[in-house]
């Protein structure tokens, strides 16, 4: 199964991704995670990506499309994958379609998680992520048992550098301008499943499973 997770910052893509990859046994490919790993390791790619990420802007396509093509050409993606945070604009979607058709395959489903703009900022600003295993929590909506400590592995939590009110607002605007048009793009292919993301985490996941099939 080849899936794309679409939705504004804070919609719950990463949270649902963890459930989806477990159920469907496909790799989770998050371009945001790949960039953050590069920043942490101090690579050239990381240095360039950080300039854009700190401002809430999209990293240029030249730095993004090639790395996704490389990743999905690896062996573990043969039977499917889930892209989270890619594509982010029409040009990226077109490049992905071209790559997949050359490889003789295509996308199965776009999981489009919809959440009203008014609640997105609070979601992203309260987000906390495990430094070690990457699990995502929320100070209010999905709190850990012990404050600041990951429920899954016991490591410390941290806050993403770009999860402040100003950058989040910018990212939401960038989503509306550049990424949301992808819903229309994929609707033409008839593969979009709209999911109400303003429900309990478990209910959102149940709706996703309904859309993808058991
Ligand atoms: P995205 O990857 O789309 O930016 P995340 O999955 O990281 O979103 O979720 C953003 C924040 O909102 C996290 O702190 C997460 O714990 C919380 N969250 C995710 N889904 C829900 C939900 N259905 N209801 C309330 N909070 C949620
Ligand atoms: P969120 O789902 O909360 O918006 P992500 O982790 O997906 O966060 O993305 C964080 C940042 O990484 C984005 O604001 C952008 O700067 C960069 N980024 C991630 N994926 C892409 C992409 N496909 N194209 C361009 N920039 C990207
Ligand atoms: Zn952890």
From TrEMBL:
Zn(2+) binds at residues 130, 133, 150, 153. Pfam families: ADK, ADK_lid. GO terms for molecular function: AMP kinase activity; ATP binding; zinc ion binding. Its EC number is 2.7.4.3. ATP binds at residues 10-15, 127, 136-137, 199. It is found in: Cytoplasm. Keywords: ATP-binding, Cytoplasm, Kinase, Metal-binding, Nucleotide biosynthesis, Nucleotide-binding, Transferase, Zinc. The keyword Metal-binding applies. Residues 126-163 are annotated as: LID. AMP binds at residues 31, 36, 57-59, 85-88, 92, 160, 171. It catalyses: AMP + ATP = 2 ADP. Pathway: Purine metabolism; AMP biosynthesis via salvage pathway; AMP from ADP: step 1/1. GO terms for cellular component: cytoplasm. It comes from the Bacteria. Residues 127-162 form the Adenylate kinase active site lid domain. One of its GO terms (biological process) is AMP salvage. Residues 30-59 are annotated as: NMP. Consists of three domains, a large central CORE domain and two small peripheral domains, NMPbind and LID, which undergo movements during catalysis. The LID domain closes over the site of phosphoryl transfer upon ATP binding. Assembling and dissambling the active center during each catalytic cycle provides an effective means to prevent ATP hydrolysis. Some bacteria have evolved a zinc-coordinating structure that stabilizes the LID domain. Monomer. Belongs to the adenylate kinase family. HAMAP family: Adenylate_kinase_Adk. This is Adenylate kinase. It comes from Peptacetobacter hominis.
């Amino acid at each position: 199964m080849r899936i794309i997770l679409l939705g504004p910052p804070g919609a719950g893509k990463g949270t649902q991704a963890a459930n989806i990859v477990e159920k469907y046994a496909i790799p989770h490919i998050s371009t945001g995670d790949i960039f953050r790993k590069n920043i942490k390791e101090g690579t050239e790619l990381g240095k360039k990506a950080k300039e854009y990420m700190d401002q809430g802007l999209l990293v240029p396509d030249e730095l993004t499309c090639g790395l996704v093509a490389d990743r999905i050409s690896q062996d573990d993606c043969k039977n499917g994958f889930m892209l989270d945070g890619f594509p982010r604009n029409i040009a990226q979607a077109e490049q992905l379609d071209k790559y997949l058709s050359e490889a003789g395959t295509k996308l199965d489903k776009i999981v489009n998680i919809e959440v009203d703009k008014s609640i997105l900022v609070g979601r992203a600003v309260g987000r906390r992520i495990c430094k070690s295993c990457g699990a995502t929590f929320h100070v209010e909506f999905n709190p850990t048992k012990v404050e600041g400590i990951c429920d899954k592995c016991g490591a410390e939590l941290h806050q993403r550098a770009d999860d402040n009110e100003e950058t989040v607002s910018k990212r939401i605007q960038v989503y509306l301008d550049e990424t949301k048009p992808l819903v229309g793009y994929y609707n033409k292919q008839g593969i979009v499943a709209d999911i109400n993301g303003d429900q309990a985490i478990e209910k959102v996941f149940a709706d996703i499973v309904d859309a993808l099939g058991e």
